[in-house]
Write the structure tokens for this entry.
Amino acid sequence: MKNIVILGGGAAGMAAAVAAAEEAAGRARVILLEQNSRVGKKLLATGNGRCNLDNQTISPECYFTSDPKAMAKMLQAIGAADPLGWLEQHGLLWRADEAGRIYPYSNQASDMLNLLLHMLEKAGVEVRTDCAAASVEAAANGYRITLSDGQTLAADAVICALGGSAGPQFGTDGFGPQLAERFGLEVQPLYPCLVPLKCKKSQVSGLAGIRVKADASLYDGGKLIRAESGEIQFTDYGLSGIAIMQLSGMLKPNRLRRPEISLDLFPHLSEKELLTLLHRHKQAMGKVGAADFMTGLLNYKVGLAVWKSLGLGDAKRPVAELSKEEWQALACGFKNWRFTELEDTGWKNAQTTGGGIALSQLQTESFGLKNRPGLYFVGETVDCAGSCGGYNLHWAFGSGILAGRHAASQL
Ligand SMILES: Cc1cc2nc3c(=O)[nH]c(=O)nc-3n(C[C@H](O)[C@H](O)[C@H](O)COP(=O)(O)OP(=O)(O)OC[C@H]3O[C@@H](n4cnc5c(N)ncnc54)[C@H](O)[C@@H]3O)c2cc1C
């Protein structure tokens, strides 16, 4: 009996195992190896425990890669495999929120995992947990996998679904890309993606825990790199929230020299309209100091942080004292509040991995290596990282299905 071995029991590995077993229909044994004591550990943490498993609007713009052309073709192949439809056929009930983000109907990541466990069992996949792969080598009739306890396993096809370096607490330590390097493959440098950002501490002092709706723009010097809208969360080290996480993926690959984030706290008003509003508010509030002036405008701590960053004085300074130029500066500061000395907060806080195995080495339709039949790399290990919104799991499930089906069809 032929063997198809899948390394890694995350979203991509589980989808690959089920798809391979279904396609093989008894012609091959499908074995899934996972180094954790259970499969799907990371899946349980996705979407804040709700598992945002896909999105109604998938497009290449939602992904970071150094090879957009190859990625767009692969994304099309994944679209044709229709991971959501495939899961639905296996029993998934789902619902979408107002932004098109798709969740299990129960809003529980544990239900998503239970469904996948059921699918693995029904398809007859042999799941081995507490089982870490240490190496993979080409052998006479396929591949030889050596486990960390020294045992070996022969495989006719190997699907590597080992994840990247993001979230090492879930079992991912960059072994997938390292394995690819051992095969002489080109690997694009890895970087933490979808990660909160540190900034100059004094710029967020006293703001930890506050959330505001704003437009966030990433600049390098004077050049706009990318803009996002959404909730910004202040932390004691810097900035978080979906808009910031989306921008974080642009830092490393673009080698930004002087990255800065600008927050527009009044995105629906022009600076002129905001100035008019500030004057109206001054009339309505009467003789007040800066702190009281912020009431009704925005969180007063946030308002005061902007006020102080502009050197307008302390919280008690009467707003009636402001000169025409200072009112102008305040309106400008609310629309262009700058944060400097940006740095990502590391792998532990990252939701996904930028960089990875260069896409040019993989077959578009199967994620199999072009020059090594029977060896596949899927999911987060390859040079494609999605934005927040279900795009990473769409890629992981879809690439797993394509590789699993192809591996079984070639035996
Ligand atoms: C907190 C958090 C929240 C997220 N939320 C979302 C979300 O809501 N929507 C979304 O689309 N994406 C989300 N993501 C990203 C998404 O979870 C990942 O991109 C996706 O799970 C990648 O799937 P994968 O199968 O490629 O890799 P992983 O899920 O990382 O799986 C790889 C598996 O390989 C195993 N492994 C590693 N080395 C070995 C070895 N040597 N031998 C055996 N096994 C090994 C690991 O233990 C792991 O189980 C989130 C990520 C995090 C960290």
The mean pLDDT is 96. The longest strand covers residues 223-234. Residues 196-345 form one domain.
